[in-house]
Amino acid sequence: MERSKMKLRLSTSNIISGGPQFVRRPAFVKSNVELLNGLRSNFAASREASISANHNEDAPIVNGHDSANSDRIPYSSWTSVDHEFLYIPSKIFQSGGLSEERSQYDITVKILLLPKSSFSDWRLHLQEAIAAVLEELGVDSVDLLIASFPGISFDAESEEMGDCGSASVSASDTELLDATLEAWREVETLNSNGVALRIGVAEFGREQLQKFLPRTSRRPTVDQINVRDCHVLPESMILFAKQENLELLTHNDCTNILPEGPVRELLGHGEKGAGVLASSDSEGRGLEGHITPQWVVKYTAVDRDRGVIENKGYFASVELTSDVTV
Fold first, then answer.
1. CB 135 within 8 A of CB 194
2. What pairs with residue 303 in β-bridges?
């Protein structure tokens, strides 16, 4: 037996032009909900486009979903394979990029490395994620790149109590810091090469920053923090950030934005599934194996003159591992 690996590359395309559900979405939408809705909508639109292109009238589409479910439409008709990647949907369904010159936009990219991704693969994941965004938007640089690492979480209560540097450091903490610094080298390279004009981190408190900053070659200029547990940032964190010339931004992104369960539901053969992954009742249809969500990247392109978001979307990478008989 040998293990075969394939990378499933999922894309929402531009959710700003993704249909009525996005035009009428509420002002506050959790990122994991926005991601899953965007993927599901883009998959349905791509299946519909594939059917229309092939003049297939046997499986009509109703309100974005095929009436006889995705089992009637083979996933191979609207996805594509390129070496180790399966693009869901195919690249031919990607949006056409930005409508104006690059200088008209303020582009922000956030890469979220997911909890089950391997430390040793983090640099590669960062490379893949930024490359996907650059290709999608048709640009060669972004204004701000934020890297979010699993295992690092801002604790407002500890910050308020001043619990900085007082706790013992475990071997796992040291391993996580070393892995984060190694991955950060890739972010530093993107910054030095002009691909990321500004670079930042997410969820770092004072304790993490005091250990992290002295070991970097190019320091982050932004720390993005989820303030779900407090309405305002602790004064101690604000003072520390000012001292270190760090801009503090807030966000509402989930750290584990794409768990395995929702991925299987999204790609499986259920009522709202895409029919890509096999299931117990799929009668052999679909890909079999174990899935591991590796990273998600979120990007926004804001028109500087109008102050509106013209392009926003997500990519996600999921590793599919299966046993192959040789």
1. no
2. 105, 308
What is the rounded average pLDDT of the residues 194-202?
A: 98
Pinpoint the alpha helices (H) of the chain. Answer: 20-23, 31-53, 122-137, 156-161, 171-192, 206-212, 235-243, 260-267
* Antiparallel, parallel or unpaired: β 80-82 and 85-88: antiparallel
The DSSP annotation for 158-195 comes to: HHHHT-SS-SPPPHHHHHHHHHHHHHHHHHHHHHHTTS
Global pTM exceeds 0.70: yes
Write the CA distances from 220 to 176, 225, 242, 284, 288, integer angstroms.
Answer: 18, 14, 13, 48, 41
pLDDT for 64 equals: 43
Judge contact between 246 and 206, C-beta under 8 A: no
The vertex-156 CA angle with 154 and 162, nearest 5°, equals: 105
The 10s digit of each residue's pLDDT in 10-48 is 999 999 964 333 333 445 578 999 999 999 999 999 999
* Residue pLDDT, tens place only, 89-125: 999 887 778 999 999 999 999 999 999 999 999 999 9
- Cα within 13 Å of Cα(223), Cβ side: 25
Residues above pLDDT 90, as percent of the chain: 66
Q: Which of 222, 249, 244, 211 is nearest to 233 (CA)?
A: 249
| CA–CA distances in Å: residue 263 to residues 59, 207, 290, 326 | 25, 34, 11, 29
d(CA 157, CA 138): 43
64 phi and psi angles, rounded to 5 deg: 85, -5
